[in-house]
Amino acid sequence: MKRIVVWLALALALAFAANAQPPAAQDGTQPVLVDGRDWQRMRAEGAHAPMFAAEQARVERMVRAAMAQGVVVPVPKDPGGGYTHEQHKRNYLALQGAGALYRLTGDRAYADFARDMLLEYARLYPTLGPHPARRGEQTSGRLFWQQLNDSVWLAHAIQGYDAIRDTLTAADRDRVDEDVFRRMARFLSEESPERFDAIHNHATWATAGVGMTGYVLRDRDLVDRALLGLAKDGRAGFLAQVDRLFSPDGYYAEGPYYQRYALAPFVIFAGAIQRNDPQRGIFKRKDGVLLKAVDTLVQTSYAGYFFPINDAMPDKGLDTEELVAGIAIAYAQTQDARLLSVAQRQGRTVLTPEGLRVAEGVAEKLAKPFAFRPLMLRDGADGDRGGLAILRMDDGHPDDEHGQALVMKNTSQGMGHGHFDKLNWLFYDNGRAVVTDYGAARFLNVEAKSGGTYLPENNSWAKQTVAHNTLVVDERSHFDGDWKRGEAYAPEPLLFDAKADTQIASARMRDAYDGVTFTRTLALVRHPDLLFPAAVDLLRVEGAAPARYDLPLHFNGHIMSVGFQAQRHDAVRPVLGARAGYQHLWVDAESAASTEVRSLAWLLGGRFYTYRFGASAPSRAWLVESGANDPDFNLRREPALIQRVDGAADATFFGVLEPHGEYNGTAEYVRGADSRIAGIAHVRGGDASIVVLRLTSGSALALAVADDPASDRAHRIVANGRTYEWKGAWARFDSPAAQSARPGPPDTKESP
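User: That's the sequence. What structure does it adopt?
Assistant: Structure tokens below.
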């Protein structure tokens, strides 16, 4: 009997040891970014939530590999992508992971590894000056070539340190506190005031790192300067960034790519604020804008990738590390089951209490589909700086889960990362980008390409207006390529409406060129005689004097047919121009000036696309490709179509892009390769325009757009023996072959 009692006692002791938490310190060193009770719950429940358990296993593999390599803290010398750069990145991830694993497993080896690495940094960091690989106008870091990366290091490493700080001796803790975290916090804040007090994503990372360091070190001064700026008056700092970098709809000033990057410090630091200063109500600030920002970021994606506007890389999407953390924090705050479907797509979560909640929700099958919808996202802190219009339709094709998205970029400049492309548009269909945007000219962290930073062609090509799908005047970019001037002006949104068969957006730009105003309307229209919804484009230019107007269309696909007479340059490829991006365009074909409607058809991903286009004045058409004057082969070779009107003060461009048909290379069949649109025409009458699509079925679709978007104003246009009358900003008139009217919006009528 005694033997049984002893055996039971031993078994209970072993079971307790296996589930024991690291002892909770009561001397001001216990964790504060994630408290002990949350660590205990994660440890007890994490194994029962497969997504959380899988993430813990992934982090264990990463940290164990780092431990097997030993502590490696090299003297910084390389730019982005180089060995020392990448090693310091691996180190901050290992520190963060080791701290979490110590709390989740109780294995002291993780804490000791993190301690030893931090002591190496305590030896190295006080010896460092400006990074030797700093470039140009970049603000130099100490560990990294730009200060931004030092801020990212701090924001990650402090989370790991918080989890193991109570395991250090007093002497080691003091040394790491002072020679790593306090030194770095001082460098990023009071020693770099112009960066720290900026309203910019670099400052967001800096304030997040410094603020979390303040909480961990129990240093209220650091916390307050992070929240309120160096002067602690609220005109700078994290709270001012929340207020000024996001619109009321949660749209971030620099665009989705940088919203993705900035999201992590915003939501992670907000979580620390909520735990340590709950009275601030950080997640309720500005009507809950940080939580809106998570939803908005997901909405600004298609087929898993973010819209690549401004200085964006095209390969960033919903599975990005920053959004994994954002989804977890947003779900923990809202319990919005739609976010769980995004987490399922990501296939992972984070080792935090919020990550456990996501994993539990997924395991309990609570996920609901995320509803992508047409919406207008206002830009600017007060929502008065233009906006991003997103039109979406389900195309009804059983094999296309994504449908269509038309994005109209009517936003503000986006600071230094902004591009000169007011009223630009992108079009997605069948899971692919059809009308494209170049994004940034950069190979991120690929050292062979200019050290992984922006290439010279980012300025000479990617930011120039001709690299985008919008109006260029006299071969000059908007605002003559001056982003600070561009930052002062934003488009004026005129219209956004989303009906079942017609979704439409319109905006006006007055200041991109002196004396020139241009107004653009884009619409997605569905019609029973079309296989898929079509995109309609109407751009009207009013100038004070005759000028050269170019309208590029950058597209993705292989040209099937050129529906106009053009001189081919198949022996020698001339260059289109000498500056503002034109020097990077090879000319493959060009037409003479004509008032005829032209067409261009291409094939992409098993679907055909026909673009019909024309202008109110004689225009030329150019088929071009990027890559001229590019001796280092930095640019992607991408095709474009450019329409040119010369010598007119006022002009209107109009077009329709129609997806149709199917090509199946496996089964060797082609269906619907011929367009179902027979023609397109434009009619201008008084204070409005009409674009008429004639279909091969004999029916017609007319889209009427008024100059004045007022809802109570009446309009009347007589064209080709027909009278179109309506009230408001727009109307649609459908005419079957029998001439019976198809209802449009209220207050519309068509008479013969």
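The domain at 70-242 is CATH 1.50.10.100 (Glycosyltransferase).
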